[in-house]
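Incident log, support desk, overnight shift.

02:14 A customer reports that sequence design results differ from what the structure should imply. Their input is reproduced verbatim below. On-call engineer (initials T.W.) acknowledged and began investigating.
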């Protein structure tokens, strides 16, 4: 078993080294691309055509950066869950060990008393007892008594053996889990370092993109393109989805739903954005990495990066109702999966070019955005 565990650990270490090498190469490629674009922008004269092209190139690079952040964040989340599970398992093992140690002490004490009683009773030659001219009824009672004591000792020994075997098994399991725990803690540190590098690369790309979008006209055009992209994606998702009879929509849930994450409203539905464009949903301020849960049961119909909204998940609730969750750090569910209210579907982030962490949240009915505050309390 130890050889098997060691081989597994070596294989995992090799895989992590190979995987880290791939990520490092990908990161270097994106860094080189950003430097090339920065050099190109500084050399070129400002023009609408060149700015538009550069913006598209930077957006493409930002998409790569944010998807890389999402991949690492997803792995880090899985590692946190695994650590939590192992901590719970170790606590359960410790609790069971306490119970078994008490049981072992009791069993040893019982067996000790039985052996002492047998010693005090002395050795009895059953053949002599049978040949003796004592009352047969008395002999029968004595034989039954000694047989009872013997059976009790055998049972006590058997019970003690079972307890000791379980204790040994628990000790081996505990050692195995502690080894796994140490490996996961090392993974967690590597993932934290990798996440920091990916986020730093994203910040550099975002800073360059914001310089290109300093012009108000370019910024407004960007917002209009983002809205059009979202509308097109939702229409495509709506056409692709097969309605489930088990999904009842949100019509009966007005004012009864919980918000998808804990946070304060930074931008409310209908408030002004820029150039006559208004917010079609709300932005909830929340720390990066906080869990996002669906407001109602449904089916995932979209889970990917979307221009302006970053890592986005769309849940179909039936009867024409959909909810959208944007700017996520990572998406934890895939298209086609059924989700319930208590499930964690994503983590709060800053994707989509956001400078502050938060969740963009929409509710739509038959393609039209409606105020989420009517449904969530």
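02:41 Re-run completed on a clean worker. Output:
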């Amino acid at each position: 078993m130890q050889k098997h565990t060691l081989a597994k650990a070596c294989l995992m270490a090799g895989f992590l080294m190979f995987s880290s090498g791939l990520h490092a190469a990908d990161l270097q490629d994106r860094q080189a691309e950003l430097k090339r674009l920065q050099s190109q922008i500084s050399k070129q004269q400002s023009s609408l055509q060149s700015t538009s092209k550069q913006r598209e190139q930077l957006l493409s690079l930002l998409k790569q950066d944010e998807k890389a952040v999402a991949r690492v964040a997803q792995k880090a989340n899985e590692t946190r869950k695994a650590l939590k599970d192992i901590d719970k398992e170790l606590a359960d093992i410790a609790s069971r060990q306490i119970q078994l140690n008490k049981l072992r002490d009791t069993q040893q004490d019982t067996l000790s008393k039985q052996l002492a009683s047998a010693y005090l009773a002395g050795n009895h030659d059953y053949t002599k007892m049978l040949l003796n001219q004592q009352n047969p009824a008395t002999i029968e009672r004595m034989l039954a008594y000694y047989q009872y004591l013997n059976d009790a000792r055998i049972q006590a020994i058997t019970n003690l053996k079972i307890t000791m075997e379980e204790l040994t098994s628990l000790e081996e399991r505990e050692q195995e889990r502690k080894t796994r725990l140490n490996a996961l803690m090392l993974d967690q540190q590597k993932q934290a370092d990798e996440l920091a590098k990916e986020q730093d690369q994203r910040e550099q790309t975002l800073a360059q993109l914001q310089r290109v979008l300093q012009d108000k006209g370019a910024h407004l055009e960007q917002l209009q393109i983002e809205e059009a992209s979202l509308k097109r994606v939702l229409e495509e998702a709506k056409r692709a989805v097969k309605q489930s009879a088990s999904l009842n929509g949100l019509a009966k849930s007005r004012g009864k739903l919980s918000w998808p994450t804990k946070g304060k409203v930074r931008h409310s539905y209908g408030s002004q954005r820029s150039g006559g464009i208004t917010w079609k949903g709300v932005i909830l301020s929340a720390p990066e990495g906080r869990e996002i849960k669906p407001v109602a049961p449904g089916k995932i119909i979209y889970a990917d990066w979307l221009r302006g909204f970053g890592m986005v998940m769309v849940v179909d609730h039936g009867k024409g109702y959909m909810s959208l969750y944007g700017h996520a750090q990572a998406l934890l569910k895939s298209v086609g999966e059924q989700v319930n209210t208590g499930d964690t579907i994503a983590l709060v982030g800053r994707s989509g070019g956001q400078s502050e962490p938060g969740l963009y949240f929409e509710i739509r009915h038959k393609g039209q955005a409606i105020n989420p505050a009517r449904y969530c309390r």
